[in-house]
Amino acid sequence: MLLSLNSFLILGAVLFSIGLFGALSKRNAVSVLMGIEIMLNAVNITLVAFGSSVVNPQFSGRLTGQIFAVFIITVAAAEAAVALAMIIAIYRQRSTVDVGDINMMKW
Amino acid sequence: MPGLCLSDTIDGGSSPHGVLCDRIPPPYIHCRRARPRRAPDLPHLAWLQRARGFCQDVQKGICVMLDLPSVVFIVFAAVLVGSALAVVTLRNIVHAALFLVLVFGAAAGIYVLLNAEFIAIVQILVYAGAVTILILFAIMLTQNPNSRGSNPSNRQTLIAALIAVALCAGAVFAFAQNTSITTASQKAISGPPGSVVGIGQLLYSPTSYSYVLPFEIASVVLLVAIVGAIVIGRED
After folding, report:
1. Three-state SS at B65
2. N or C end of chain B: which has fewer CB within 10 A?
3. Cβ B182–A6 below 8 Å, yes or no?
4. ipTM
5. Is a pLDDT exceeding 90 seen at residue B10?
6. What fold characterizes domain B68-151?
7. CATH number for A80
8. Count: domains in chain A
């Protein structure tokens, strides 16, 4: 059967791998952030799929995955706001967003 | 749902022999090695009974269930993976950010398939609406004069691809190996829709089994993030 838990888990794994590739292989800091957003989406899909696959109807265990997804979306929005503010601040100081050139905290 | 109730009775190609099926109008069944015959004029439920009889009797051919949710899942999954690949491979970062909208929209479709309508709406609002606009603003504010090669790859592309492929293969292999997951996933993912009330009760109700405290902490996290973003991005 196609529309089972495994299909969604495999979709989440593939999407996570694509996001990881983007986050590891890009120079632009905004592009790295986009890869991280794709990874967070993959984790959300996995959580909601696990929550929807709960067959026991007791105590709305089905909704726990969705609650976790809500919190992940919240934290991802906060993370995106802070990260983009940092990128803009760094660009104002150094006129680059290349993560290879941003080495102020390296020693 | 007629497509889902049929899928419990018909072996979806997992047995070595497989089964033979006719072609039934609402839940589409593709038959390989068995010539699809025309459906006679029977009522729908009687048709399901006949198909069930066919599939249990004849031991030739392979049935592949393709009901409507499966087709929708295939379409959304293809759009999701394809646009995610476009995000990580395109050379122009503005195009990559626009494909990110497609990724978020297709993920919202996947949530709808999983009976998580509230998450789908929040996904559209927060991700496709707010986060993408933030990313586009950041791209515009940090744009070089030439945006053609604005999304270059670094020297680790090959090893990053190796790591990603290894992770993907390992995860898929683990899902194939884990019998508890596969046995639990034989049942189709379905459930009563309309979970917004349940989510609201879980988030806000002051009982012992709710998420009031994480919700408040999340609001504090958002407040700190807003203040931090203003302080970090301030021009001084």
Report:
1. strand
2. C
3. yes
4. 0.91
5. no
6. Four Helix Bundle (Hemerythrin (Met), subunit A) (1.20.120)
7. 1.10.287.3510
8. 1
